[in-house]
């Protein structure tokens, strides 16, 4: 059907509405992002994919708003810019064939509800409202449908491109190994150029800025291998800005990831989640899945830490599967200690870790024993219950709080 422009008055209203959309309040964007990510837990648990979806939805808002400021009420072409199409790339590199429509449909619903609120603020005339909402409803629906169709087409192109490279064979082989498929070990080792016997330590290395310089990911993978005693670790491109890495060995990593820490300090956007050393093909899988669990915990808690080891966060990962319940647990067991300074937190944590032995804790913290005891008295004044009556729960709560990215004190 030929496009029939809205009346001049409704065109003016749509332009005003679009101008408001182009300058949204932060709380509106927060509500928008939260609803979109809640619709797809699989996306929300993957920090890189979650960031790409949020950027794509923001770009779509801006694209639709800009088009309607320029020509209000006119059909809006699909957004085929870098943000929406990056979603296709990320999905294909993860081996995901079905596009997560829910995330976009929920975003469409939230944007539509906000647009209706704007419309009712702009006019109370029933005729104008009817015409304006009818035009905008059709416009948004057609725009989202066309954009999704463009992304679907890009997924096909990305898949064709990916399957022509050697990366496809390595990625496919790793996927088969992780799924427990009966692929012969010798064949898998030949494809990967990596022995599957002995001890393996896995890491997930990713960047929070997939559009930036990603060379830090490869440097981090090399440094991880160096710390594990493997000069040629297996590195697989899991997505544009994520590497799955396996290093042979891991006997010396208890002394710290020195090379990896140096590289991480040079590249602020690089994040690293590390699994425990484990043996054989089962260890190859187990260490990777533990690294993935660590990455998901870091994303779930918005952790600001650059490097996390599964061995250090296993209990926190289990305790924070439900973030809201975890936050309640922390507040209930820490009370006013939750907002105390980090020095007091560390004193209590080390004291409990040393089985409530003041002498050992003081030595570990390089403190005089009396100084330690004064701090513990202060902690007891802030805690809802004395530390001696609730030491395990307090220690867990402090650990959860330590890994959380948002500090309230």
TrEMBL record:
Q: Any idea where the CdaR GGDEF-like domain is?
A: 187-296
Q: Where is the PucR C-terminal helix-turn-helix domain?
A: 344-399
Q: What Pfam families does the entry give?
A: GGDEF_2, HTH_30
Gene3D superfamilies attached here?
PucR C-terminal helix-turn-helix domain (1.10.10.2840)
Family assignment from sequence similarity: Belongs to the CdaR family.
- Name of this chain's protein: Transcriptional regulator
